[in-house]
Amino acid sequence: MKKIGIFFGSRTPEHDVSIITAQMIISGLRDLGHEAIPIYIGKNGRWYIGKQLDSVMFFREKNKEEKLSQMKSYHLDMEASTDKMVFFRDGIMPGKIEIDLAFPALHGTNGEDGTVQGVFELVNVPYVGCGVASSAVAMDKILTKIFFQGLGVPAVDFVPLDKQRWDESPDKAVALIENKLTWPMIVKPARLGSSIGIAKVRTKKELELAIEVALHYDDKVLVEKCVENLMDVTCAVIGNNEPRASLLQESLFRDELFSYQDKYLNDGGAQTGRAEKDIIIPARLDEKTTKGIQEMSVKIFKALDCSGIARFDFLYDKDDGSFYANEINTLPGTLYSHLWEKSGLSLKELLAELIRLAEERHEVKRKLILNFDSDILNYAESAKLKLKAR
User: Fold this and answer.
1) β-strands 230-239, 244-251 pairing
2) Contact in structure between 118 and 112 (CB atoms under 8 Å)
3) In a domain, 258, yes or no
4) pLDDT(259) > 60
5) What is the pLDDT of residues 227-251, one digit of tens each?
6) Cα atoms in the Cβ-side hemisphere of radius 13 Å centred on 369
7) Do 78 and 197 reside in the same domain of the chain?
8) Which pLDDT score, from 0 to 100, does residue 74 have?
């Protein structure tokens, strides 16, 4: 039995989605016989640990903030945390909690973007999922598009835009976008998921408004070509050095794009696997296209040095049969367990495999030599003395 810390919440617009993912993981890990320790990061940045945090019902309560304020927040003891994570709680009744393995269930900024993975690396604790670099690149939709270009993976045309350029001259920014792209277009915050802040625009006025909205969530915006007769296709991948792809999922949507409403609210949400009438597994694609998307997903997974699990979203053009790599999710909501279930991997098997992969990767890193002895400081001191002599 392992002590596994499940990290969720955090300062992100995807805070509530993270809570749902975490509760599923906590329940599944306990079914496997592990000690699952909920580690909740509040919207205020404080860290809370307690058994009452392992239920969605706690977070539905109207007085949850009052209850949280009465809980003593924990802090990570960096000195004690070596090959494990040690949390302390101060006060009249101090507490101490240790975990052997970290399981992030964080989505979006301050969690899925490599920040918390960096903490795990510093204390040298094994953790589930992708590492710092792959998480950071995948979180940034602009960097992801640039990565696709370098890898030779097809992606729709796009224009990156930052807040400074927009503030300096919205007219010039719009002119640049109109020169490179045709209507309609899709506008997205660069580092946000779950379709938050995304809009489909057909006119200059709609474009300007959508950019203003997106810049409330991020200081970088991605404007890209719209595939109008679209099928939204998803492929999940699991593994380390020998990753394997899942079946493909086709997600139906009611609006003009795959919205937050479609993903999480309508009939329980397509992303959570509950809106069964909006999910088609396997996707209605021919064998050649299906294989092409699966192989491309594995190619991206390996090239970006992903590990553990990731999800790849594609845009399939029903008019000409072409498909484009769209986004990478290094911590997919609910781990996309419903898709893995259809692909022959139960939740228990999925969680057990992710833990095994985390330990496998950690063991490889453990064997690396991270220190190097040199005389450079002695040379530096000598150089300093010579400079003074002059």
Assistant:
1) antiparallel
2) no
3) yes
4) no
5) 999 999 999 999 999 999 999 999 9
6) 3
7) no
8) 86
Could you give the CA distance from residue 306 to residue 312 in angstroms, rounded to a whole number? 12
Range of the domain at 62: 3-128
Asked if residues 333 and 17 have their Cβ atoms less than 8 Å apart, the reply is yes
pTM score, whole prediction: 0.90
DSSP code of 390?
-
Q: How confident is the model at residue 36 (pLDDT cuts 50, 70, 90)?
A: very high
Q: Give the phi and the psi of residue 227 in degrees, each rounded to 5.
A: -90, 110
**The tokens of 134 are what?**
């792959």
Mean pLDDT of 159-178: 97
CATH number, domain containing residue 163: 3.30.1490.20
- Is residue 298 a contact partner of residue 309, using CB atoms and an 8 Å limit? no
CA 105-25-54 angle, 5° bins: 90
Q: How many domains does the chain have?
A: 3
* Mean pLDDT value across residues 33-61: 92
Which of residues 166, 194, 225 is at a domain's end?
225
Encode pLDDT of 3-23 as tens digits.
Answer: 999 999 999 888 999 999 999
| Residue 375 belongs to a domain | no
Q: Decide: helix, strand or coil at residue 250.
A: strand
Cα Rg of the chain (Å, integer): 23
Residue with tokens 């040379």, as numbered in its chain: 379
